[in-house]
Amino acid sequence: MTKQIFCPATIASLLLLGACVRGAHEPNEKYVLVAAHTKIPYWQEALAGLRRAGKEMHVKVDMVGPDRYDPKGEQEAFEEAVADKPSGILVSPADPNLMTADIDSALQNGIPVLTIDSDAPKSKRLFFIGSDNYAAGRLGGQLVASLLAGKGNVVIFTYPGQANLMERREGYETVFKGYPGIKVIQAVDINGEAAVAYQTAKELLSSKAQVNAFVCLEAVACPEVGEAVKDTNTTGKVKIMAMDTDQRTLNWIQQGLVAATIVQKPYTMAYVGVRLLDDLHHHQQPSLVTNSKQDASSPYPAAIFTGTFIVDKDNLNAFIAQNQKQANGTTKP
Fold first, then answer.
1. Separation CA 225–CA 220 (nearest Å)
2. Residue 205: CB partners within 8 Å, gap ≥ 6?
3. Is residue 147 domain-shared with residue 231, that is, in the same domain?
4. pLDDT tens, 181-225?
5. Has residue 331 got a pLDDT over 50?
6. Range of the domain at 19
7. HSE-up of 184 (CA within 13 Å, CB side)?
8. Cβ–Cβ under 8 Å, residues 304 and 11
9. What contacts 65, CB < 8 A, 6 or more positions away?
């Protein structure tokens, strides 16, 4: 093959990110990350990974998108990014149906596009980088089932239509099917509004509703759910399963209000994403618009999973210490 995108090795080797010889970077080479809620800690962590990759490769990087949850605003930011003709784009589609045509258009215009964190599976994006969200849901589901001893009523907090959250919910509900005593009695679409999570949890805890567990499929809800538990003096009466590492979520774990959280690696997603976009830019195939998902000889993987793990009170201090070392520059991901 005269134009192979990655080094001729396995995907595991590809993730070492250093064996391929890259071409010289152009002065105007730039990579952009587009997200739907850029100011939350999750995406600020991704921004740190983005910047590290940019610094190492001596290329320009930027994160764009609305500072409040806004799928339409994300689409507009994506369109503006495409108009600037960057060398590659990472995008986390809040509404995959809204983003699919724009992703395909960017590829048709020669701009490599990868999805991270959340996918747009009907688009022609080259591949997805992020968590195996169905597996993450199953991981959380097994822990909730254990915490409830196989019996109880569950309320789920989510966003409508977002692919990664739908996959997580499917993972949870697949596990719950094995426990007839566990029922999902309500799914709350908070649309990125933390106040909705707080108000709904408080109303449920203050009523005669029998709620035994709250499950948060994203980062915004659980800090507020923990606040509602504290304000209603119901600590220990309801189990809370969180997502991601908002500082307030970690505080609630320390105080015993939240049982555990599923930790993703947004720093890694963005870091790996930019490094692979760089390979795609410098070693492009004749066409970026391919049916690689059904091509057994495709140079593109279908997905690269960056991993998830549980943090609870038992390993919280070790997790915080590790993150502090990384922040101080004494470890590398």
1. 9
2. 211, 228, 229, 232, 234, 238
3. yes
4. 999 999 999 988 999 999 999 999 999 889 999 999 999 999 999
5. no
6. 11-131+265-301
7. 18
8. yes
9. 34, 35, 36, 37, 38, 73, 74, 77
Domain membership flag for residue 2 = no
- Domain count across the chain: 2
- Exposed (0-12), middle (13-18) or buried (19+): which is 51, by Cβ within 10 Å? middle
Do 125 and 113 touch, CB atoms closer than 8 A? Answer: yes
Between strands 309-312 and 260-263, the pairing is antiparallel
Tokens, residue 188: 């709350």
Structure tokens at 97: 């149906």
Sign of the dihedral defined by the CA atoms of residues 272, 277, 282, 286, in that order? positive
pLDDT tens-place string over residues 111-142:
999 999 999 999 999 999 999 999 999 999 99
Examine the domain organization and report whether 71 and 155 are in the same domain: no
> For residue range 264-309, what is the model confidence (pLDDT) as tens digits?
999 999 999 999 999 999 987 767 877 667 777 788 888 999 999 9
HSE of 301, CA atoms in CB hemisphere, 13 A: 19
Q: Is residue 321 part of a domain?
A: no
